[in-house]
Write a structure and sequence with these properties.
By secondary structure, the chain is mainly alpha-helical. Helix content is about 45%, strand content about 5%.
């Protein structure tokens, strides 16, 4: 009897062992394959969730190096980084992106060493003019223009160094760099006989670019404009990067043109036909402005003063022809330099600079644009 009772009690256990294709899932009996499938799907979903969270916190600049020249054509999107103590409100998206990049490259604050990294933008953000905090807008403008100004200056100084080296090889009068080997002038100097072919080619291009065949005039014109003046005039002409001409055509310095496509000023006087010239990039605008001061006759006084001093507050006296306002314009440039302490930028240099080789043809085609003050 005890044996029968034992069999009766253990029967459920025996039943569970005899059903290998069914298992408990909570209070229900289900097929094992269904449970394993459900657990597999759940694990995969959790894996995807963790992976997506991890990638969202990946550093935005981990694939970049400080020597890369970022342009608008290769923009990256980063979250704006707010500096403690800043009181300005939320900034527009594109300007906020640029501020983040300036901070990343150490350009939001001027480096104490004066060494400026080669961070170049192609255009200014088209929403920069909507920034209400003028202090923020000024810093964005200046510290984005600074590397461009230093690059163009260094180009000019490198040309000058090469020019001086070549002229030092000519052992006769350099009054006139005549390109004709045969000359009826008894004072003709066969200067090409002293130079290699690539050096002759370099001199030819400089003469075309700076519109003179005088060695003395070349030495006067192939030189650099102080950084503080570049920044000050850029700030005034572009309203610290907010002007329509800057937004639509990278025209930082309000250069006028009569022969090429440009932007028509909304307040152009009746009967006038000039336009404000547009450029492919900010650097092209800086180059055109820099060449204008070094080449055109209205700025001969500026170049004469540069032979005597590098003081920007003295040199700007030679820029009365840049604007119809004359002396008032010069005084405003001085005030911008002084009130914004722009002379400290004259001590800056560009690091890791990769300049083109000027032994071949000069790449920038010379233009004949007249300078002028554009309406903002």
């Amino acid at each position: 009897m005890n044996t029968d009772h034992s069999v009766q009690i253990n029967k459920p256990e025996q039943d569970r062992v005899d059903w290998p294709h069914v298992m408990h899932f909570g209070k229900r009996l289900v097929q094992p394959w269904a449970v394993y499938s459900f657990l597999g799907i759940l694990t995969f979903i959790l894996y995807l969730l963790v992976s997506s969270l991890g990638s969202s916190y990946r550093p935005a600049f981990q694939h970049l190096t400080p020597s890369e020249n970022l342009t608008e054509a290769r923009r990256i999107h980063v979250r704006p980084v707010k500096t403690p103590g800043e009181t300005h409100g939320e900034l527009p998206g594109k300007t906020a992106d640029l501020i983040s990049k300036l901070k990343y490259y150490g350009l939001w604050k001027l480096p104490s060493s004066g060494k400026v990294p080669p961070f170049f933008i192609k255009t200014y953000p088209d929403d920069l003019h909507t920034v209400d905090d003028i202090g923020v807008r000024k810093r964005v403008f200046l510290h984005s223009l600074l590397p461009q100004a230093l690059f163009v200056r260094q180009e000019a100084l490198q040309r000058r160094e090469k020019l001086e080296s070549i002229l030092g090889k000519i052992e006769c009068s350099q009054e006139n760099l005549d390109f004709e080997r045969e000359s009826k002038n008894k004072r003709h100097c066969p200067w090409k006989d002293f130079l290699a072919e690539d050096e002759v080619h370099f001199i030819r291009n400089l003469c075309r670019r700076y519109r003179t065949t005088s060695a003395e005039a070349l030495l006067e014109r192939v030189d650099a404009v102080p950084t503080s003046i570049i920044l000050a005039q850029g700030a005034l002409e572009s309203s610290w990067g907010a002007s329509r001409f800057t937004r639509e055509g990278n025209s930082i310095f309000g250069m006028w043109t009569w022969k090429t496509a440009g932007i028509t000023p909304s307040k152009r006087d009746e009967g006038k036909t000039h336009k404000v010239k547009s450029y492919e990039s900010v650097r092209d605008s800086v180059r055109a402005y820099h060449l204008t001061l070094n080449r055109l006759e209205p700025y001969d006084q500026f170049r004469q003063l540069r032979r005597q001093t590098d003081d920007p507050l003295i040199l700007v006296e030679g820029l009365t022809s840049y604007s119809e306002r004359g002396e008032d314009y010069v005084e405003e440039i001085k005030q911008i330099i002084l009130s914004n302490d722009l002379e400290i930028y004259d001590n800056c240099t560009l690091t890791d600079i990769d300049l083109p080789d000027f032994s071949g043809p000069v790449s920038n085609k010379a233009t004949r644009d007249k300078p002028g003050k554009a309406s903002l």
